[in-house]
């Protein structure tokens, strides 16, 4: 109806009790800044009873739209390529994962870069529901996923963490060995005197 509005889209992995208050704050900030209607919309990734679409207390009532992935039938979205990464979060999402993986991999209408991003995102979201499912997907399609900037960022970040963890363990082991050797040498010297 040609009415200007701001669609405020938030994504919540874990929906906590304070989130609706933050959503109210975000909505009010946009309303004050732009003086137009704000439509708050939340994509809720993990199952929760807290994402009701309404927040009420003694002072105010606030309504927002909540798209609860776990309530949606995955098969209803098989023709929506942009939704593919989220399918593992939906009802029976595990059952369509291999089908969607093939649809992405063998689709000639999308670029290799898009395929890598879709598969990487899908593996991440599959991991929210079932770690083994994500591992299987990564093993099967790692060759394509490696081309995704997201995959590269994750690999770099995890590599840094692993390196730091390894250095800390190595340093601790080195210190322990050094202390033990120092004690042994000290004891030997003390006994020789």
Q: How do you describe this structure in short?
A:
The chain is an alpha/beta fold. The protein contains five helices and five strands; from the N terminus they run βαββββαααα.
| Spatial strand order of the main sheet | 1-2-5
The main pleated sheet reads as: 3 strands, parallel
Mean pLDDT: 85
Q: Which parts are unreliable, with pLDDT below 50 for 5 consecutive residues or more?
A: none
Count of discrete alpha- or pi-helical segments spanning 4 or more residues: 5
Q: What is the total tally of β strands?
A: 5
Q: Give the class from helix and strand content and strand pairing.
A: alpha/beta
Order of SSEs: EHEEEEHHHH
Round the Cα radius of gyration to an integer and report it. Answer: 25 Å
Q: How far is the first residue's CA from the last residue's CA? A: 97 Å
How much of the sequence lies in strands comes to 5-15%
